[in-house]
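Tokens in:
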């Protein structure tokens, strides 16, 4: 069986085969037998044999297992841990995506292919989508694994590796931080956050521009007014929010109650009138 595994490795360059991989030797070449082939049932069970080698090394219960066998298998690219191998392959895809696009901000349905050494995002209507690499699903699985879900935990080394390529662990928190930075820019430029709910903005040449409703860019502009309104509702309801977020918003002049603000502004005007004319 080792000789067959060696032939497979020399022909295909790896031993990355599924448990159900059966092969046939024909004209001194290894042919992978398909399940619907009549010869599949009697073909050589290469996948199972490789799996048995992993179990033998892990358990140490087979007396005939020795370092020489392990060394020989290592020489032909034996994969001792399939989960780790698959994780590393997907990590390399994620790393390539990050190096090419500068982030890992992808949706769960994002699928990619490696073409000519570059990562191509495959659209749903593309016939290749079905068989493309499910990068979005894998990244989402890493978030769940970090939280102890999916019956596994993500070890510190893998967490650190993902951090180095800009892993987004909390999509909601990332979206909040992005909108906060826009609100901060607005405050620094205009001196307040006194904006109406329909207010939308774009960052152009490093500056915040308020986009009018009749501007064709309005549709795709950032919903600053709506976002600030959402923060008021969350703060008022006392949920989702945390003190750090509240403090950050306070630092850029967040208006938590528009009615109270309006009352205070009108009161100051009334007060000035009284001081000037002696009555109201």
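Residues out:
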């Amino acid at each position: 069986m080792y000789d067959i595994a060696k032939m497979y490795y020399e022909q295909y360059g790896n031993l990355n085969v599924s448990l159900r991989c059966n092969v046939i030797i024909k004209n001194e070449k290894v042919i992978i037998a398909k399940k619907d082939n009549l010869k599949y049932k009697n073909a050589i069970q290469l996948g199972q044999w490789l799996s048995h080698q992993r179990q033998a090394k892990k358990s140490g219960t087979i007396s005939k297992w020795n370092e020489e066998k392990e060394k020989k298998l290592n020489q032909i690219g034996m994969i001792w841990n399939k989960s780790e191998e698959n994780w590393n392959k997907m990590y390399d895809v994620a790393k390539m995506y990050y190096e090419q696009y500068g982030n890992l901000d992808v949706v769960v349905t994002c699928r990619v292919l490696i073409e000519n050494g570059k990562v191509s995002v495959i659209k749903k209507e593309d016939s290749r989508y079905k068989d493309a690499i499910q990068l979005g699903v894998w990244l989402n699985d890493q978030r769940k694994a970090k939280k102890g879900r999916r019956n596994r935990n993500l070890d510190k080394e893998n967490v650190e590796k993902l951090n180095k390529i800009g892993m987004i662990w909390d999509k909601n928190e990332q979206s909040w931080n992005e909108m906060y930075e826009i609100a901060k820019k607005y405050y620094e430029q205009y001196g307040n956050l006194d904006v109406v709910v329909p207010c939308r903005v774009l960052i152009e040449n490093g500056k915040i521009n308020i986009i009018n409703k009749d501007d064709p860019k309005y549709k795709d502009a950032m919903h600053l007014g709506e976002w600030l309104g959402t923060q008021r509702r969350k703060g008022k309801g006392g949920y989702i929010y945390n003190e750090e977020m509240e403090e950050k918003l306070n630092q850029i002049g967040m208006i938590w109650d528009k009615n109270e603000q309006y009352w205070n502004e009108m009161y100051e005007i009334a007060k000035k009138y009284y001081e000037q004319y002696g009555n109201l």
